[in-house]
Amino acid sequence: MSAYLNGQFLPLAEAKVSALDRGFVFGDGVYELIPVYSKKPFRLDEHLRRLQGSLDGIRLRNPHETGVWRELILRLVELQDFADQSVYIQVTRGVAPRDHAFPQGVPPTVFMFSQPLVTSTPAQKAAGVCAVSAVDNRWLRCNIKAISLLANILLRQQAVDADCAETVMLRDGFLTEGAASNIFVVKDGVLRAPPPSSLMLTGVTYDVVLELAAAHGIPHEVRAISEAEVRSADELWMTSSTKEIMAIVKLDGVPVGAGVPGPLAQRMDGLYQAFKQQVMRA
What we know:
Blueprint: E1 2-5, E2 8-11, H1 22-25, E3 29-37, E4 40-41, H2 44-57, H3 66-79, E5 85-92, E6 109-116, H4 122-127, E7 129-135, H5 150-161, E8 166-171, E9 174-178, E10 182-187, E11 190-193, H6 204-215, E12 220-222, H7 227-231, E13 235-240, E14 244-251, E15 254-255, H8 263-280
Parallel strand pairs: 7-8, 7-14, 11-12
Antiparallel strand pairs: 1-2, 1-6, 3-4, 3-5, 5-6, 8-9, 10-11, 10-13, 13-14, 14-15
């Protein structure tokens, strides 16, 4: 696989950074993840705007204009020998002696690589997955895609330890998101999603689900969702570029609704697959 590092395309195995890179010693950087379908990046401009927002959030100058980013990403995509991809972009504050204060005059480190985008199979979607819940103990700026993801890793590991797929996070009695996904609730035929805020990171699939709900007359609400609503849901979903629309059929060992993927999850997945073929691959 080919990668990009500080102005050079090279084999991923040959990409090396200094041990004094602030991304390595401090986690001082941000990232972005762009799904690619049939070698076409999906909503590239929106992803680059989100990258800019993350850079602004940590007061790091964007090393490239939008047009340059676009050229670099498209070049990286073309260098891969697989069509559906997940392009990872990482920008750190660069290489400097270890000191908490921002270094002056140091160029950012820019790294990108692409790997195959592997989504859930129909059999996996038909079965659904289990999840656990946990208190969301992350920092208060979760809308910044910071590379320091240790809290998410520890929360996700709770699910792995329980042989489950995801950890549903709750803060002060309300739903935020999953450790590596967004979470939707269905009750009495109404789709509910927590609103974007500094306490969560809305993904591209989150946006698509709400757009599809609006386009196809599916009742939906974007509002704060209580823990009680999560636990009494008729359906519970996790969404991401890789999981797509995945029903959570058991939470903390208790069946969600009937304990099988519900009718709205199945309908939304059908709409999503059609959208993927007609729009994402267009």
